[in-house]
Specification:
This protein is of the alpha+beta class and 320 residues long. The chain contains eight helices and 15 strands.
């Protein structure tokens, strides 16, 4: 019996690290057959090189991918923090047209944090790959789920706002990926110089009468303080994983360039994990270089109960 169990264990382990040859197909959303074929080949090349690099425990070979320097730098940072693998052999996805080109989403990945021995079902993530109008790969980011993406896109069908919402979601995904990549330069760039950073933590008070009470204590930081603290967190932790959920996007009623984005955030680093509400006030006056003026984080629970929705920071809490 022991021999059988050991054999099964070996087989499971071997299968976990076996290399899948990936074939990627675009089902619909683009009529230009040559462009469609070019994009399919690019995604196929990227995912197969990822799998081969994971199997060989080596760095990515970007010449095999044929991607530009910016994509190379982004993927290299993500790979250094959390190497990944694509376990699906046949992927068929819809092509989305954006204001600058195209996107394919729902690319299934299993993340393998540096220093971790086994894959964990928690490490399932999805990637989004963007292309310019000529079908060249523009970016590779970890994505929010398709359901969340479509909920935001469908919440307002006015053309200009739809285009802006696609842009916002693109930057939200880039923002999320930057934490997973430990990309301190991007985060330093995206926060405005006078950005307001607010972080809440639960404080428990023991009263003389014998009972305890809890409240959220808020701490304000400047951009300089936040970036300095974040740099230390990145240096102390080999692995950072940030996930977003329950996204809500609100446009400012007067200034159409300002948007409030509220997300449910999960943060994991080393042995630490927390869940809370993240609010970002985005300024898209310059669409090529949008900035975050406000970042707040609150725990999602207090006293064992969910934080009331009216206590979650939103666009109406800040004067613009």
């Amino acid at each position: 019996m022991k021999r059988i169990l050991l054999s099964l264990s070996f087989i499971v382990c071997h299968l976990s690290f076996s290399v899948a040859h990936v074939s990627f197909t675009i089902s619909d959303g683009i009529d230009n057959s040559a462009l469609k074929s070019k994009m399919e080949n690019s995604v196929t090349r990227i995912l197969n090189e990822v799998n081969e690099a994971q199997a060989a425990s080596r760095s990515l070979n970007f010449s095999a991918m044929g991607v530009n320097t910016r994509v190379q730098q982004s993927m290299a940072m993500l790979w250094e923090n959390t190497p990944f693998v694509c376990t699906d052999e046949d992927i068929v996805e819809h092509c989305i047209t954006t204001g600058t080109g195209y996107q394919v989403r729902n690319i299934p990945l299993m993340m393998k944090p540096t220093g971790e021995r086994d894959f964990n079902e928690d490490e399932y993530q999805e990637a989004v790959i963007s292309f310019d109008k000529q079908g060249e790969v523009e970016s590779f980011y970890l994505s929010i789920s398709m359901n969340l993406y479509m909920n935001v896109i469908k919440s307002n069908l006015e053309l200009t706002d739809l285009r802006r919402r696609q842009l916002i979601l693109d930057y939200v995904e880039q923002f999320r990926t930057a934490y997973n990549q430990k990309d301190i330069n991007f985060l330093n760039q995206v926060f405005s110089d006078d950005a307001l950073i607010i972080t809440g933590k639960v404080i428990t008070t023991r009263h003389a009468e014998g009972f305890t009470s809890q409240k959220i204590q808020y701490n304000k930081q400047s951009k300089e303080q936040y970036i300095r603290n974040l740099r230390g967190i990145f240096q102390r932790n080999s692995y950072i994983k940030v996930t977003f959920d329950e996204i809500e996007v609100m446009r400012h009623p007067v200034n159409a360039n300002f948007y409030g984005v509220t997300l449910k955030q999960g943060w994991t680093s080393g042995r630490y994990h927390d869940d809370g509400y993240l609010f970002l006030l985005w300024d898209f006056t310059n669409e090529n270089a949008p900035q975050v003026h406000v970042r707040t984080w609150q725990p999602d629970k207090i006293g064992g109960k969910a934080l009331p929705k009216d206590e979650v920071f939103s666009l109406s809490d800040f004067d613009i």
